[in-house]
Amino acid sequence: MHTPTVDSPPHRPSTDRSVRAVAAFAAPTVLLLVLVAISWSPLMSLDGSIANTTHGWAVDEPGVTHAFRILTDWVWDPVTMRLLVAAVAIWLVWRHREWWLALWLAITCAAGTALQQALKAAVGRERPAWPDPVDSAHYAAYPSGHAMTATIVLGLLVWLLHLYGAGRVVVRTAVAVTVVSVVGVGLTRIWLGVHWASDVLGGWLLGGLTIALAVLAYERWGAPRRT
């Protein structure tokens, strides 16, 4: 019996799990988008309450705020994430000659960015405004680009590790780093007062939906068939 190794992806997987993942992410993603678009009062009130509380903490704890700015501007910044994608795409081509997989990865991340910017323009949600801001950001608020980009990039990299048969310890470590990073970047955006909590939740949901759709597309049209 042939055992898949990290040198080549396994046979074409079933799409059932990916279809369920798409359905699971699609419903809450659309619901939250609608609630934000219509400025549903209970959600706006909750966002405001969370924002006021966390902004007070950010002003009172300048050391923590400075650390969060470093993390959000350098470690978890979308530019850093895109450079990571570029490095992985180059590795896929150089090490495995996986041109299609590298292209799929790049297209997925680019599509995520395009969707993010389109929704920002369409929803046009204002960011929180403070008399004593601790940070600033550009463009509209919904969804959080930092949260969405980190979710897509790190989620896809974990999936690629699984695809190439990485060891259990490696995969579990990658999952832990991904969870800390995705949750962490969302919390830093709220703490720094540049996003509402629902912006971050929207970024996470849209990121998850983008991954599910991309993996479904790969499984249907890009994965190698069993020989």
TrEMBL record:
Residues of the Phosphatidic acid phosphatase type 2/haloperoxidase domain: 101-215
Entry keyword annotation includes Transport: no
SMART domains membership: acidPPc (SM00014)
Pfam families (alphabetical): PAP2
Protein name, per record: Phosphatase PAP2 family protein
Membrane-spanning parts: 21-40, 74-94, 101-119, 139-161, 173-194, 200-218
Keyword Transmembrane found: yes
